[in-house]
Design goal:
Elements (H helix, E strand, L loop, with lengths): L45 H11 L5 E2 L5 E2 L3 E8 L2 H8 L10 H10 L1 E9 L2 H14 L5 E4 L1 H9 L7 H7 L2 H10 L2 H4 L2 E2 L2 E2 L2 E2 L10 E5 H6 L8 H15 L15 H5 L8 E3 L5 E3 L7 H12 L12 H4 L1 H4 L5 E4 L8 H7 L5 E4 L13 E2 L6 E4 L7 H15 L3 H7 L22 H15 L7 H14 L6 H7 L4 H11 L3 E2 L8 H22 L8 H26 L1
Parallel strand pairs: 3-4, 14-16
Antiparallel strand pairs: 1-2, 5-15, 6-7, 8-15, 9-12, 9-13, 10-11
Length: 569
């Protein structure tokens, strides 16, 4: 089967491991199909209510054209879920809260906004319940962060505005460049009937690609080179078993047998919609192309190269062999060095994990790594918000402090270091960028060569200092060095990008009607069969009948709906 490759643009990397969010929720909001108009000051907002209250109480101030008062703060409401690490690492150390902190003070001083939280949920489930209730009542926060499904529900109910005019008029050059670098898909995914309802929390598409992590110290001990094919990987795993001894696991595999990089080496992309030979989109997990890689995994399971109990272990139990020195091969994402491989490096001073490009099923074959749109949430602005432009102005300010050249401002608002790391999460709005890790890696490698950090911003300087400290003996920072320095995971991703033969997940629209009602059951049908085949409870040839059952139960209808979207996107 011939796949369609995606030529990634030069700036397609994004921010590192943590992405702050207000709330991602799914709700069923009933309402009309009325579209909100983007005119500034339309609707009734908390800002209007606050102005009325101030006038009634005799508060002093000069009336402005929009009915507010000059010098008054404009309340803008948000919602979020509390973060245990913020509670322990920041609130326990300084006099601050979600409502009262240096970020909210900054927005008040420079944007004229009073940050108000409609709710701070204790966990994700509570947050979803609160958002569902807000959608049902039509009283959502002025700004909230949601997934595609919820965004579409809000748009259909007339609860949110077209954000594009505000972005065009008020966004800074830095913010506009950031969104431009992210590419058009994250905007297209938030556009319904020609109206852009969501502002993307941009993330890094290239960082969704898998890579192969291998213990280099064990390769050296076995006098082996890094494998260049699946057969060579098998030989490496057998040699590693001799080194690890009793309890050895050849390759890590999670309880769902979801190993994207392994399947991509066979030119198969489970969970992706790819372009088939007839030009239509197909769901790779529901194709016969799955059978060859599944047969190889089943063989490895029978030979003891996979954990015999992989399908009954939770995530914590499944990674124990990696940390305990019983496993030296794992397909994983770029930040795996930060966790859990940092635990392996801390426990064993000799553990030398290295990231490599994924390998083909046969030596000499061309590998096409799979990537997908990493942006999974969008900011939306309530139709009742009187000042949507303030949201854009807040983003401008956040980007200035986060991605600007002032290292002192970076240390003050983003990452002062030590236990206070993560201060940026106090901001009610935040963004990743699609290229900062690529840029940071290049600058770190250059600074390692000449010892100069001139021209590096706050975050870039921070990463350089982490890498250098690790090289100077601080083993606790090993994960940062294997992320950003020469030969690290970012250089693997940059290599993918430069090769330009990436396969993109082509479906990035809102879930179709049948997906919404049946995808959970249909996915479970395929996933259960995959686990049974790998663990020897089902023959690989039975996957054909599973695919037919999947189609009959609604999968064929989903394929049609996805292709209808594909033809009209």
């Amino acid at each position: 089967m011939r796949k369609q490759s995606f030529k990634a643009c030069g700036a397609a990397l994004a921010g590192i491991v943590m992405a702050a969010g207000l709330l991602t929720g799914c709700g069923n909001g009933a309402g009309t199909n009325e579209t909100s108009q983007p005119a500034q000051g339309s609707g009734t907002s908390q800002a209007d209510a606050a102005g009325d209250s101030a006038q009634e109480s005799g508060a002093e101030g000069t009336d402005t054209e929009d009915g507010g008062q000059e010098g008054e703060l404009i309340p803008i409401s948000f919602a979020r879920t509390t973060d245990a690490s913020i509670e322990s690492n920041i609130f326990a150390q300084i006099d601050a809260s979600w409502e009262d902190n240096l970020w909210n003070d900054l927005y008040a001083d420079e944007v004229g906004v009073q940050v108000v939280y409609k709710w701070v949920a204790t966990d994700g489930d509570q947050g979803k319940q609160k958002l569902n209730g807000a959608i049902a009542s039509g009283d959502i926060p002025d700004v909230c962060q949601v997934d595609k499904t919820t965004m579409k529900q809000m748009a259909d109910a007339g609860l949110i505005v077209d954000i594009a005019p505000y972005f065009e008029q008020y966004a800074s050059d830095r913010l506009k460049k950031l969104i431009e670098d992210a590419g058009p898909q994250c905007i297209e995914a938030a556009t319904f009937d020609g109206v852009q309802y969501g502002f993307p929390f941009v993330d890094c598409d290239i960082e969704t690609a898998d890579m192969l992590w291998i213990r280099q110290d064990w390769l050296d001990k076995a006098n082996l080179e890094a494998p260049k094919s699946i057969d060579e990987l098998e030989a490496v795993m057998k040699a590693f078993g001799d080194i690890a001894g009793d309890g050895a696991v050849g390759m890590w595999i999670g309880n769902t047998a979801n190993i994207p990089g392994f399947f991509h080496g066979y030119g198969v992309y489970p969970g992706y919609w790819t372009v088939a030979e007839d030009g239509r989109l197909q769901y790779d997990k529901a194709t016969a192309d799955m059978k060859e890689p599944l047969a190889k995994l089943a063989q490895w399971y029978q030979e003891g190269l996979l954990d015999k109990e992989f399908y009954v272990k939770d995530d914590a139990a499944s990674i124990e062999p990696l940390v305990a020195g019983k496993c030296g091969v794992v397909y994983a994402w770029h930040a795996y060095g930060l966790y859990p491989l940092q635990d392996s490096a801390s426990a064993d001073p000799e553990a030398d994990w290295r990231p490599f490009s994924i390998i083909p099923s046969a030596e000499g074959a061309v590998v096409e790594p799979g990537i997908r749109m990493a942006t999974s949430s969008w900011y939306v602005v309530s139709a009742k918000c009187g000042h949507p432009e303030k949201f854009i102005e807040m983003l401008n300010l956040y980007c200035e402090k986060s991605f600007g050249d002032d290292t002192a401002e970076y240390a003050k608002y983003i990452n002062p270091g030590g236990d206070m790391e993560g201060l940026w999460r106090l901001s009610p709005v935040s963004l990743n960028t699609p290229n900062k890790n690529q840029i940071t890696t290049g600058k770190v490698i250059a600074a390692m060569a000449d010892g100069s950090t001139e021209g590096m911003n706050g975050e870039e300087t921070n990463m350089y200092n982490y890498c250098k400290a690790n090289l100077d003996g601080d083993r606790s920072l090993w994960g940062w060095n294997i992320e950003f320095n020469e030969g690290g995971s970012q250089t693997v991703l940059i290599g993918y990008q430069e090769a330009g033969n990436l396969v993109y997940d082509e479906f990035y629209g809102a879930p179709t009607d049948t997906m919404t009602s049946k995808s959970g059951t249909l996915e479970a049908m395929l996933d259960e069969a995959i686990v049974k085949i790998v663990s020897g409870q089902m023959s690989v040839d039975e996957y054909d009948s599973v695919i037919e059952s999947w189609k009959a139960a609604g999968g064929e209808q989903i394929v049609q709906e996805v292709n209808d979207w594909y033809q009209t996107r």
